[in-house]
Design a protein that fits this description.
By secondary structure, the protein is an alpha/beta fold. It is 40% helix and 17% strand. The chain folds into three domains: 27-238, 3-Layer(aba) Sandwich (Rossmann fold), CATH 3.40.50; 245-384, Rossmann fold, CATH 3.40.50; 404-477, no CATH class. Helix 2 (27-43) packs across helix 3 (45-55).
Length: 480
């Protein structure tokens, strides 16, 4: 454990300790991943099988890459004792993301005509639609994560994605944790594949004879999975590059030291690079938390990892609650716990965090498994510029623009001058052609077209305004 004091240590040293992360790209990892990506892109299933046999499952066959529906049903039966956990957590996750989704709808705006009763001259809209297919990578290795299936699959379903698939590493016998498969059934996952590592990302990005290509790939993974996601980005969308997990706790003199220590240890038991930071302006509380930390660590099972991550726990003595929050914003943690007397009063001072957990009784664990917001959060300081996985991760926005003849004519000269200022005379000519008589007049339109009928803009089904939010829209006509 490392300790700092803002009265004693220089600010640069404290900031360096908070922001120090192993972000260097491993050239060997990236070279290996490039080879796998190129191989899967060129040889499809055969490449996936070769890498799977070499790394995970020596007896892998093409026919067995996809988990059968019968195996998923059997997994649900084998884990019936945990069904209530999966179903309740899934309900919480769905409820949160449905509330979020309802705020992500298409909309339109009409610029009014110049005369009373005149049809709009300009109509602008934004069309919000889900992507077609999503691939979820679910890690294996040190631990398997049924919770990741729920936290990624359900937001995609709520967003209206047509198909959601999962890739997860198999064991040496091709087995997958039954609870993970049961979570796939609860989350409504359409297809599950026994494929891990960079070859799984490649298969989901480019498609093979067995695995369909996806539009967006999400989910955490190893350095190889992260490198693969980084390299396929642009061919497909990704959620983020998930790094080691981290928690920051801002505490005051009335915090519960047992809770503080428990949450620091819970976060650092994930893996050897995970980090826990405590900011507190009360010296006595810091000492109590330190004693609790040593006592609780001795009672936990994952001693090998906790011995490594002990040096990743940082205590910072600050001068005030405000300074604690300022330093937390520098860290931009994945999880931020506010164990202070008035957490809601402190919340407006939080600028950078993936998730904020308010009060002594809101642990990172309840956010990881139960509360509803996805636990896939920006790490490694990325909360400065990015957001958690949510239904919005699976939505794309399309701008819709309509100008009537009169509006186009009015704007033509200004648009042309702007284009000429940038050196694009073709753009200028295209604008000026709309500013006068058409160079090749069209035949008279059939009755019902032309004036009084024109651009189609968005309108909720059943008429204009009101009704439930929906991502499906009919059209209304705007006069030209």
């Amino acid at each position: 454990m490392r300790q700092f004091d803002t009265d004693r240590d220089i600010p640069e040293a404290i900031r360096a300790a908070l922001t120090a992360r192993n972000t260097a790209r491993d050239a060997q990892v990236e070279a290996t991943v490039r080879t796998i990506l190129d191989d899967v892109r060129a040889r499809g299933d055969q490449a996936v099988l070769d890498h799977t046999r070499r790394l995970d499952w020596p007896e892998a066959t093409a026919a067995a890459l996809e988990v059968s529906a019968a195996d998923i049903v059997a997994a649900g039966e084998a884990t019936a004792g945990e069904a209530d956990l999966l179903l309740t957590a899934a309900g919480n996750i769905r409820e949160f993301h449905e509330a979020e989704w309802s705020r992500q709808q298409s909309w339109d705006h009409d610029a009014p005509g110049r005369l009373p009763g005149q049809s709009p001259l300009v109509s602008l809209a934004q069309l919000v639609q889900p992507v077609g297919r999503v691939g979820v990578y679910v890690p294996g290795g040190r631990a398997a994560y049924p919770s990741t299936v729920l936290m990624a699959g359900i937001p995609a379903s709520v967003a209206g994605v047509d198909e959601v698939i999962v890739c997860t590493p198999p064991g040496p016998d091709g087995g997958i944790l039954p609870l993970l498969l049961a979570a796939c059934e609860v989350a409504g996952i359409d297809r599950v594949f026994r494929i891990g590592g960079a070859q799984a990302v490649a298969a989901m990005a480019y498609g093979t004879e067995t695995v369909p290509p996806c539009d967006v790939i999400v989910g955490p993974g190893s350095a190889y999975v992260n490198a693969a996601k980084r390299l396929v980005y642009g061919d497909v969308g990704i959620d983020m590059l998930a790094g080691p997990s981290e928690v920051a706790i801002v505490a005051d003199e009335r915090a519960n030291p047992a809770f503080v220590a428990a949450d620091l240890l819970a976060q650092t038991e994930h893996g050897p690079d995970n980090k826990g930071v405590l900011f507190c302006h009360d010296s006595a509380m810091l000492e109590l938390c330190k004693s609790e930390l040593f006592e609780q660590r001795a009672a936990l099972a994952r001693q090998e990892i906790l011995a490594v991550t002990a040096n990743n726990i940082v205590f910072v003595k600050t001068r005030s609650l405000e300074e604690s929050l300022d330093l937390s914003n520098v860290l931009a943690p994945e999880h931020l716990e506010l164990m202070v007397r008035e957490p809601l009063a402190a919340l407006p001072l939080v600028r950078n965090a993936g998730a904020v957990l308010l009060g002594d009784h809101t642990s990172a664990a309840v956010g990881d498994y139960w509360a509803g917001p996805s636990h896939t959060l920006p790490t490694a300081g990325a909360a400065r510029f990015s957001s958690p996985l949510s239904a919005a991760t699976f939505l794309k926005r399309t701008s819709v623009i309509y100008y009537s003849q009169a509006a186009a004519s009015e704007a033509a000269e200004d648009v042309a001058r702007f284009a000429e200022a940038e050196g694009f005379d073709g753009h200028a000519r295209a604008a000026r052609l709309r500013g006068g008589e058409e160079p090749h007049p069209r035949p008279l339109p059939p009755k019902g077209e032309g004036a009084g009928a024109g651009a189609a803009i968005l309108s909720p089904p059943g008429g204009e305004g009101g009704g439930e939010a929906s991502s499906t829209f009919s059209v209304k006509e705007v006069g030209s």
